[in-house]
UniProtKB/TrEMBL annotation:
Pfam families: NAD_binding_1. Residues 11-112 form the FAD-binding FR-type domain. This is Oxidoreductase. One of its GO terms (molecular function) is oxidoreductase activity. InterPro entries: FAD-bd_FR_type, Flavoprot_Pyr_Nucl_cyt_Rdtase, FNR_nucleotide-bd, MRET, OxRdtase_FAD/NAD-bd, Riboflavin_synthase-like_b-brl. It comes from the Bacteria. It comes from Heyndrickxia oleronia.
C-alpha cells in the first residue's frame, strides 16, 4: 500500500514560489520555496522539480526535500559546479516570487520503524539525512533506538555541520564525519557487529558509492531487505 502511495504521488503537481537562495559551501547552494499548507512529505522523500520560467531542453530533475516537514518550508540543496547544466543555470536565475513546479513527493527512502538505523551519506547524499534527522529532533523523546549517521566527504566539506552536531546532542543520535573509505568501512563494521540484521541501513549519494557500500554490507552478512538506497543519478 505505502509503495503505491509513495509512487502515485508523482501525479500531484504544484507550483512553488521561490523565496531565496544561499551558498552552503563553494559549490553547494540551498534554494528555499514557500510551503503551501496542503503539501507535506515524509522526511527523506524527494520531488521532481521542473523549470517553468523559460524553455530549456531537459527541464526536470529529482531533488531531495532537504527540510523536515515540520520546518514549514520547501528546501532543496544542490551541487552546482563551474559550467553548470542549463537546468542549474536556470535555478541560479530565480528571483523572489518566481515559480518552479514540483511533482511528488515520491520515494520510499524514509524511516519506517523505530529500530537501530545506520545512515550512510556520501557528499551531497547528506540531503535526505538532514531532513530525517531534523524530523527526529522535532519528535524528541519518542526516539529510543540508536540512529548513527556516517557522513563521508573526501574533501571534508561537511554540509549542515552545526545543525548535525546540535542534533547529535540527543542521547540516541550520533554523527561521525569521515574522509576515507577505510574509515567508513571500519565504522560500518562496528555497527554491524552490534546490530547486524536487527537494524536498517540507509545509503545516499552517487551511484558508485551507494552500490559499493551496499555490496560491502551484503558481504558482511546484511540482508538486502535491510538496505535502502537513494541513488543520486547524475553524479559519479
Ligand atoms: C532521488 C534523487 C535525489 C536527488 N537529490 C539531489 C539533491 O538533494 N541534491 C543534488 O544536488 N542532486 C540530487 N540528485 C541528483 C540530481 O537530480 C541531478 O541528477 C544532478 O544534480 C546532476 O544534474 P545536472 O543538471 O548537473 O547534470 P545532468 O545534465 O542532469 O547530467 C549529468 C550526467 O549524469 C547523467 N544522468 C543524469 N540523469 C541520469 C539518470 N537518471 N540515469 C543515468 N544517468 C543520468 C547525464 O547523462 C550526464 O552524463 C538527486 C537524484 C535523485 C535520483
Amino acid at each position: 500500500m505505502s509503495f503505491l502511495k509513495d509512487t502515485l504521488s508523482i501525479f500531484k503537481k504544484r507550483e512553488l514560489s521561490f523565496l531565496e537562495c544561499h551558498k552552503e559551501s563553494e559549490n553547494v547552494y540551498t534554494f528555499l520555496f514557500e510551503k503551501d499548507s496542503d503539501i507535506t512529505w515524509k522526511a527523506g522523500q524527494h520531488g521532481l522539480f521542473n523549470i517553468i520560467h523559460r524553455k530549456i531542453k531537459n527541464p526536470t530533475r529529482p531533488f531531495t526535500l532537504a527540510a523536515a516537514p515540520s520546518e514549514n518550508i520547501v528546501r532543496i540543496t544542490i551541487k552546482i559546479d563551474e559550467n553548470p547544466s542549463e537546468f542549474k543555470y536556470a535555478m541560479l536565475e530565480l528571483k523572489q516570487g518566481m515559480k518552479i513546479s514540483m511533482s511528488g513527493p515520491v520515494g520510499g527512502f524514509y524511516l519506517k520503524e523505530n529500530i537501530p538505523s545506520l545512515l550512510i551519506a556520501g557528499g551531497i547524499g547528506i540531503t535526505p539525512f538532514r531532513s530525517i534527522l531534523k524530523q527526529l529532533e522535532e519528535e524528541g523523546d519518542s526516539i529510543r533506538k540508536p540512529i548513527h549517521l556516517l557522513y563521508m566527504d573526501s574533501k571534508k566539506s561537511f554540509l549542515f555541520k552545526e545543525e548535525l552536531d546540535a542534533i547529535a546532542n540527543h542521547p540516541s543520535i550520533s554523527v561521525t564525519y569521515l574522509d576515507s573509505r577505510d574509515g567508513l568501512y571500519q565504522e560500518i563494521e562496528k555497527f554491524t557487529s552490534l546490530y547486524n540484521n536487527n537494524s536498517k541501513y540507509f545509503i545516499a549519494g552517487p551511484i558508485s558509492m551507494v552500490n559499493s557500500i551496499a555490496s560491502y554490507l551484503q558481504n558482511n552478512g546484511v540482508l538486502k531487505r535491510n538496505i535502502k538506497k537513494d541513488v543520486f543519478y547524475g553524479y559519479k
